[in-house]
What does this fold into?
Amino acid sequence: MKKSVGQLTLVIMLLFTSKSLLAQVTEVSAVVDRSNISQNETFLLTVALTGKVDRNERLDIANLEENFDVLNSSTETRSSYTNGRGTTTTYLKLTLAPKSAGKLLIPPIRYKNLTTKPITISVEKQKVIQGTLNDFILETEISKTELYIQEQVTMTYRLLYAIRPQLNRKEPEVENLDIVGLADNNYKKTIAGKHYQVVEFNYAVTPGEAGEIIIPQQNWYVSYRKNNYRPIEIALKTDEIKLKVLPIPPEYPVGAEWLATEQLEMTEEWEQNPSTFREGEPITRTITVRAMNLKGEQLPPIIVSRGNQDFTYYEDKPSLDTETGSKATVATRIESVAVVPKRAGDDLVLPGFELTWWNTREKKVETSVIAERTLSVQAVQAQTNNQDNRPPALAVLPEDSLQVQQTERVVVKSEPPYIWIIATAILAFTNILLALLWIKQRHAGPNKSQIDLRLKAQLDNEKQAFNAMKDAAGSSDLQEFRDAILAWAQFVWPNQAVTLATIAQRSRDENLRSALIKLDSALYSQQASNDFDSKSLISAIQKWRNQHRKQQQQNVAAHLKPLYA
It folds into this structure.
């Protein structure tokens, strides 16, 4: 049912008020999932507000109803953390239907003094199809026909059917083209009063060389029954597609790895605040690169240095991943390195990183940068406590003192010496006995009952957090799921900073590492979040948790064995 602007605005405002309201919105943007539709199709408009929204401010969408009916709305909130700073983004999703054909404008949407850019939607008139193929329509679409070498575009074969068919088709194969299947889309559509089911077969297409490349026509065969008669089979043809593939532009830096993408971002994350560096103590630094319409293996190495005169690097094996949605892929490369300062000082320089890429939307060279840091590293404090436990040094006496001492010895020599020998031996034996008891007590550690109580309390808290994490996995809020994972991990690694990256690193489990990377990618990609499988991540955590608890029990048993042998 169509909603009035006033009702919809009130709903949106109420949805926003459920979130924290401590910071102002710093950016507002809007995107659509499709910009070319027919008059009887719907599409999704997503408005993103970066920062915390204000309950007293309304999102102005009144002008939308001039060209579109607002059929539905929903909101979701996601949070991300980079370099210790958190960012919250609220997404308003509106399902819109065009009121007429032609070029329709989504006007700027205002929030306080911020506005989105206008968006043009091309709406075709209803298609009236004559002939025997009226029950089936096959459409061919590609996102762009002029592209650069190794640039990824999306190709879609769209089948509309009024009668459910048996479909016989082949996957497209073309020389010098890498064609990879993406997620399918399913929805309904009405043409001239006739209802169709629609299935979209989406592909990521990447050319391997410059020049003209043709994707030829293909025959699709559909078999169906009508009025319970024998099966009828007909052939449908896809359209031929001609691609003009451009070479690497001459202005691209010589020697730089060629990366052609619409969007690339590079971020760093620290296991703990780098301002707490101490000489000789490692801190883990994690560099993450995400790029649209690329594969993980296309992203080049970032940390290529083995250190410098100030720092030593101990690198971990990089993690590569490619997430696929229905219209794009998201490539991720994560590199972790333990950074160890070689010396103390206030002028130690930690190198930064640069990654050059070609912006296919703006058609220009871009450079993503993580700037170098000048750090202050604390010196390791001298160990002075042991000096108190050392015996005092012998005093050096002058020569005349020695004479006096010798004279005194001659005087006391007439006393029975065995009394002092026995007293000295008893005193020495007592000191040795006390020292042995102190050493035994120090190495013995807590007794069995103390360990059992401490371990039981830790396991009880960890179990509650694990159950809460499993409950969060059943919800559609990936941010809530992520927070629950971090809360559980805090009991596994107490008194240590935990992130998805550090969990992946400390677990030393490739399956868990891969599942955590997929969750991290889903939090940054709206399309990928719809396909994320939280059950597989819970399964990976459960498997690792069982192995970890078994190892803990073995460690406790090994620790107690000398006390009860």
User: Anything to note?
Assistant: The radius of gyration is 35 Å. Residues 418-444 form the longest helix (27 residues).
